[in-house]
Amino acid sequence: MEKIDHRPKLSLVFALVRIALLVTLKRKTSSEMNIKKLLTAFFSAVMLAAANVSAAPYAAIVINAETGEVLHEENANTRLHPAGLTKLMTLYVLFDALETGLIGLDDEVLVSNKAASESPVKLGLEAHSKIKVRYLLRASAVNGANDASTALGEGLDGSEAAFARRMNGYSKELGLSRSTWKNAHGLTEKGHLSTARDMATLFAAHMNEYPDYFNLFSRIRTHAGIRDVASSSRRMLGSIKGIQGAKYGYTRAAGFNGATYVTRGNKKVVAVIFGGRSTATMIKRMHQIIDIGLANYN
Predict the structure, then answer these.
(1) pTM score > 0.90 for this model?
(2) 87-98 pLDDT, tens per residue?
(3) CATH class of the domain defined by 57-295
């Protein structure tokens, strides 16, 4: 099943605007009509409706991090924009490349014009400069830097397209059957989609297969070669009890997305949210679904 559009249609937007106008007109006679208030009501209705139209669909899941058992889910198989959670796939590929010797932490990557020109969040790489892989990994994992993520992909495979093919190959091996990757960073692109279920499976695989690198997802701040960077996930890391790692992402199309790995006692869960309305509401809901998942833990 393809992505479900939970947003109201444009016809509903215009209906809401029409209702607002009719209500305003009904309350005032033509002699006492206040044009300023009428326009205020009109534009308020337009803005409210537009906000509803642009709201990203919501999806969530909590799984047992060790067995994969689903403890809570809502729209977990709906294909949505992953935004910065894409970097979990990028980093999974890079960690495997490190383990198999395809690339080394101290190898230097030549920064392309494309990588340097990626939209924020950015490390601030300059075209034709060189930077070590270890710093690009830190910038991508901790800060969510888009330029660093593209540079990693190009450094491994020579081009973004070639790296995307590698991402899709690994995705298939992991059983992420409803994910398709077009880039290394997660900025919105047609066909670049994943699901809450696939992302939870991927984050659990990070801990299970590459535990030596998992500390990157728990750092509040780190040095990334050309400057220090703060974690884009720091609000989750600082507020969720037992959290061992987190990843955050946002684009207008995706909404506010988050992934967390939490251990409390002998219980280990991965929780993922797509389509939060704000960072604060996403984190509030993250707390709630983690508690639900732990309550359902066998």
Answers:
(1) no
(2) 999 999 999 999
(3) alpha beta
